[in-house]
């Protein structure tokens, strides 16, 4: 109960400081100044009527003033009231204490003016509102609201009719009070817990707002009344937290120190003491195990915690004033894994934990039965769970050691010694607690797979998670959804999250529900914004995409927190930073600041600092914690630019620091040795971040900006390279998350070009390339380009790594691919890319060893023969161009018109060397007729050339060629796009169209619609090249 009271005290005090405290003042407060209580006033009416009140219920008490009013009428009714209030009284100590709490408003059911007088005495300004007409004309922000009227206006609420007609007579005041209760922190003073007024007030609000209003606080000032769990829970469910005076441990020392001016009643004194207790900063400055446990236990739901989460949860105020008046601006100083304590309030907490651990250790080690029994009496074993949870939370924030350095305070508690010279020697008490490292320090299996791009093992984990029932397996399903997300199975991940959210809410697992809905919203948003090509590659139909888009529109993340039961909201307050992405935006700002510091301090000479100090190492730790926070808590944010910005800032800073020239001075300006602190070697995590959170354009830009020619790796990072490369290659070979794996491979090879990989790993990398190259069709040119850069850079910077035999293997493979391409349907784009690659490889081989002889040159000889034929035809055609005019006469006169004559005519007309000729068209017509009869295999090529001439208006009598439409579907399509029978259309035709021809097709609405439909089906069913995608989005989407 004490921890609950401590927390309630903190909330009330904070509300006071933030103008959010409203105090309700009952008759009990005025009664201690000499005015009648509500009960004694009613009993006065009962005596006038001869009624015995001993056995009358509180509800019947309302009827007694009503009986008197009905019997004696208004004058006699008010005479009784005036007689009771016509006494000379003054505000008491409770009134003074109320105003020291600085309430925003005071609401009272009292009719007297003691509150107004107390306000004047203390020099504070409160407007008085005792009837509806007063409310609109208040000038001050602060009010004393006399909700039951006052004697001056003769509008008091006392008899039954007054209560029944209250809404009509005090409509504005009643509604205003309801709004206060729903949004402000409420403290009741001077009331009995059974007071009819308290019941009515809360019933009003409950009828309108249900349970969605602030919990109020009620002081039970009877020091003999012990905590009653049944009573406590009953009123808590009605919106009232009872604070039992008898359960407040720290209040006793206050009682002795307070001098009361005009209070004699013990319960009244207790009320005053409690108000002083709320104001007491000394008692506020005590955090114990119970308090820390209550504030941190829900934070422990997170698998990784930011230290700032702990500070926010403990609600530690700064600047902080110590007992001696010293002002401290931070309770902690976090250095790597060590937490330094700066104030007595936090030092006390860890000393208490240390003392508890010492007792527990002594008990566990004790072998004497009797002594162990005595030790057992001194230990509260219920605290063991609390202490362990506090340690877990700290450990999840990366803290492994606690150091206390507040010298004066620690010396007093731990009796540290002074130096003989009489000067204070700086000493430190270190308190390191042990935790289960396996649980909290080790990277979990899934994180390890993610950080090494081990998609095969991720799929294996997924296979092991074949669970049917979510109920009872919520955590496992949460991990399953995250695995699906990391493997690019977005639709499946979304569906799992959808089911998970429903189950978690029903089972009141609100933390998981919260994160699940957060992930569903951001994942659903990503799916809903994908273009048609992306969703087809992901296997998501357009109708499903539209359905998801509608579903996420209904997810209001701002309301998810507010929709949780009110009792759970405070417990999950730390999640609001996740909900609104505040933690990401804060990290963007922090990393921008750190980046600026790294840039500013890169050339500074540091004295007396280790190699792992400096801004860049703080930055690295900061980013590692951020990645762990996202990954361990399974947040699905990889698709968002905001996240990329955070990691980009670190990548740039890491490269800047790594490329900074290292300087070490034996003697600096101060006469001491100093050095530049830089990132001497890149670790595996930094490599992972570079590959995972940046694209190749960004990496190339940064490498160029900082002239990155060589990157030095830590020894373990080279192991990371080997394992990760193997994982990516195996994923491509097994076709597991193949698109993602290919992108990773491209970036990886480019980054490795700047790293001394050694000969063994060089060979391994080339072998991997040769294994996967046949799996590529998309972005093949990028793979060639990056592998070429890798080989060139390795040759330039790390010649000893080069294996010329492996380069020959690549060379022979590429020659074989080009030879095969020349023999089949030619793809000039791929052929040209491959030829450029071969030229560069040949140059490198020559540079390495000019006398090197190929072990196997049969593919090279075959390619040379093929290229000789191609070159002969090329030279033959183009040396004829200058004599086309002379040949024109021969073409016209030649009786035997053949393919070569047609080729010469076609080229001459296209190049505008000669004009179209009716006579030659007749010869061509006759020639094509013969080819059609003979069913010559070259007929379609001839007709396509004719179609090209027709489309460019270079055929004079084009209608004569229409008769060949049945000989070639492609020819039929080209010469009559609008009327073509598209049932026979083949999509492959358009891949060789010129831009001009695509433009013609695009202008025909019928053609455009039909081709678009065929194109969409093609994209869904096939792995498309970039060129193909560009055609679709440029002309047909």
Automatic annotation (TrEMBL):
- What span is annotated as the signal peptide, if there is one? none
Please give the Pfam families that the UniProt record associates with this protein.
Answer: SIR2_2
What keywords tag this UniProt record? NAD
What's the domain of life for this entry? Answer: Bacteria
Which InterPro entries does the record cross-reference, listed alphabetically?
Answer: DHS-like_NAD/FAD-binding_dom (IPR029035), Ssirtuin_cat_dom (IPR026590)
The segment(s) forming the Deacetylase sirtuin-type domain are 1-426
This chain's protein is named Deacetylase sirtuin-type domain-containing protein
Upper lineage: Bacteria, Bacillati, Bacillota, Clostridia, Eubacteriales
């Amino acid at each position: 109960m004490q921890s609950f009271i401590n927390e309630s005290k903190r909330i009330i005090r904070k509300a006071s400081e933030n103008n959010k405290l409203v105090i309700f003042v009952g008759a009990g407060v005025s009664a201690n100044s000499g005015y009648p209580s509500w009960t004694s006033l009613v009993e006065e009416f009962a005596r006038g009527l001869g009624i015995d009140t001993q056995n009358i219920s509180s509800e019947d008490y309302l009827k007694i003033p009503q009986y008197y009013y009905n019997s004696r009428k208004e004058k006699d009714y008010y005479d009784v009231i005036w007689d009771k209030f016509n006494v000379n009284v003054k505000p008491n100590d409770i009134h003074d204490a109320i105003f020291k709490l600085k309430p925003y408003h005071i609401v009272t059911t009292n009719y007297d003016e003691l509150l107004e007088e107390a306000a004047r005495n203390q020099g504070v300004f409160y407007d008085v509102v005792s009837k509806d007409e007063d409310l609109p004309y208040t000038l001050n922000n602060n009010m004393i609201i006399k909700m039951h009227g006052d004697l001056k206006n003769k509008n008091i609420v006392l008899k039954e009719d007054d209560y029944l007609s209250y809404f009509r007579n005090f409509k504005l005041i009643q509604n205003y009070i309801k709004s206060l209760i729903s949004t402000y922190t409420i403290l009741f003073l001077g009331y009995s817990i059974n007071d009819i007024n308290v019941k009515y007030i809360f019933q009003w609000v409950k009828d309108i707002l249900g349970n969605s209003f602030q919990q109020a606080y009620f002081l039970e000032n009877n020091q003999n009344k012990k905590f009653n769990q049944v009573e406590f829970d009953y009123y808590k469910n009605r919106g009232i937290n009872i604070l039992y005076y008898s359960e407040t441990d720290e209040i006793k020392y206050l009682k002795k120190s307070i001098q009361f001016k005009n209070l004699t009643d013990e319960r009244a004194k207790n009320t005053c003491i409690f108000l002083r207790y709320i104001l007491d900063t000394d008692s506020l400055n005590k955090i114990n195990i119970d308090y820390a446990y209550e504030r941190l236990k829900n934070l422990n739901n997170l698998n990784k915690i930011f230290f700032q989460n702990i500070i926010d949860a403990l609600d530690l105020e700064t600047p902080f004033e110590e007992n001696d008046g010293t002002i401290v601006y931070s309770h902690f100083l976090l250095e790597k894994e060590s937490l330094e304590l700066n104030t007595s309030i936090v030092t006390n907490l860890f000393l208490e934990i240390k003392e508890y651990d010492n007792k527990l250790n002594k008990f566990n080690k004790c072998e004497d039965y009797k002594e162990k029994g005595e030790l057992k009496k001194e230990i509260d074993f219920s605290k063991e769970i609390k202490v362990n949870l506090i340690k877990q939370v700290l450990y999840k924030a990366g803290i492994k050691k606690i150091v206390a350095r507040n010298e004066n305070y620690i010396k007093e508690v731990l009796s540290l010694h002074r130096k003989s010279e009489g000067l204070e020697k700086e000493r430190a008490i270190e308190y390191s607690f042990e935790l289960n490292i396996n649980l909290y320090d080790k990277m979990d299996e899934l994180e390890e797979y993610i950080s090494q791009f081990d998609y095969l093992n991720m799929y294996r984990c997924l296979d092991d998670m074949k669970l049917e029932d979510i109920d009872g397996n919520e955590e496992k399903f949460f991990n399953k959804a995250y695995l699906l997300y990391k493997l690019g199975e977005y639709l499946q991940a979304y569906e799992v999250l959808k089911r998970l959210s429903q189950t978690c809410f029903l089972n009141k697992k609100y933390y998981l529900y919260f994160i699940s809905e957060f992930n569903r919203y951001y994942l659903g948003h990503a799916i809903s914004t994908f273009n048609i090509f992306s969703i087809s590659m992901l296997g998501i139909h357009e109708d499903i995409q539209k359905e998801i888009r509608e579903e996420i529109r209904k997810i209001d993340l701002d309301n998810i927190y507010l929709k949780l039961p009110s009792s759970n909201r405070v417990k999950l307050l730390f999640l609001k930073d996740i909900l609104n992405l505040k933690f990401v935006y804060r990290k963007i700002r922090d990393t921008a600041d750190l980046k600026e510091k790294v840039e500013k301090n890169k050339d500074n000479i540091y004295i007396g600092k280790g190699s792992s100090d400096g801004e860049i190492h703080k930055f690295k730790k900061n980013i590692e914690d951020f990645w762990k926070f996202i990954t361990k808590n399974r947040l699905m944010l990889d698709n968002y630019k905001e996240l990329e910005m955070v990691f980009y800032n670190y990548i740039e800073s890491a490269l800047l620091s790594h490329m900074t020239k290292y300087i070490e001075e034996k003697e600096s300006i101060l006469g001491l040795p100093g050095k530049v602190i830089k990132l001497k070697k890149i670790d595996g995590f930094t490599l992972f971040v570079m590959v995972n959170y940046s694209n190749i354009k960004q990496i190339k830009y940064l490498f160029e900006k900082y002239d990155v020619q060589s990157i030095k790796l830590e020894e373990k990072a080279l192991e990371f390279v080997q394992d990760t490369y193997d994982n990516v290659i195996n994923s491509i070979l097994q076709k597991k998350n193949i698109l993602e794996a290919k992108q990773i491979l491209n970036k990886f090879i480019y980054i490795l070009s700047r790293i001394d990989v050694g000969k063994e790993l060089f060979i391994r990398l080339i072998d991997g390339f040769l294994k996967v190259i046949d799996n590529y069709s998309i972005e093949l040119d990028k793979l060639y380009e990056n592998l070429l850069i890798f080989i060139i850079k390795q040759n330039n910077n790390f010649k000893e790594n080069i294996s010329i035999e492996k380069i020959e293997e690549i060379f022979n493979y590429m020659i074989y691919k080009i030879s095969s391409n020349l023999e089949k349907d030619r793809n000039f784009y791929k052929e040209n890319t491959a030829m450029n690659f071969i030229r560069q490889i040949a140059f490198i081989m020559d540079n390495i060893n000019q006398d090197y002889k190929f072990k196997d040159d049969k593919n090279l000889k075959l390619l040379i023969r093929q290229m000789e034929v191609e070159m002969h035809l090329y030279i033959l055609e183009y040396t004829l161009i200058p004599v086309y005019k002379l040949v024109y006469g021969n073409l016209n006169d030649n009786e035997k018109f053949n393919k070569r004559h047609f080729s010469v005519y076609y080229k001459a007309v296209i190049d505008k060397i000669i004009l179209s000729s009716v006579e030659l068209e007749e010869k061509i017509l006759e020639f094509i007729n013969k080819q059609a009869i003979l069913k010559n295999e070259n007929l379609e090529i001839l007709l396509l050339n004719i179609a090209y001439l027709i489309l460019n208006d270079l055929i004079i009598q084009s209608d004569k060629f229409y008769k060949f439409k049945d000989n070639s579907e492609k020819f039929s399509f080209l010469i009559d796009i609008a009327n073509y029978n598209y049932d026979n259309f083949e999509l492959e035709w358009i891949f060789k169209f010129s831009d001009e021809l695509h433009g013609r097709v695009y202008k025909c609405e019928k053609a455009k619609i039909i081709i678009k439909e065929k194109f969409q089906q093609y994209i869904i069913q096939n792995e498309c090249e970039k060129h193909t995608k560009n055609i679709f989005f440029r002309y047909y989407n």
